[in-house]
Amino acid sequence: PAGYAGGVRVEQSAGLAALAGILPGDIVLQVNHAPVADPAQFRQRMSGARNTVALLVLHDGQQRFVPLDPG
Fold it and tell me: Is 35 helix (H, G, I), strand (E, B) or coil?
């Protein structure tokens, strides 16, 4: 996205992500304060998560933290 390095664009939102308010077109910039540059890095960071993670999401030009329990 313009003005941001890296991040992963959300193509589909279902289940827990949708319930947390993450929408298609959003950009996930960080997982637990660690930047993500591509989908593989995002999956790696999420696969190690055992508890609720904080996703820094860019939505309509605004950044917000979204808690997500990978359960």
Answer: strand
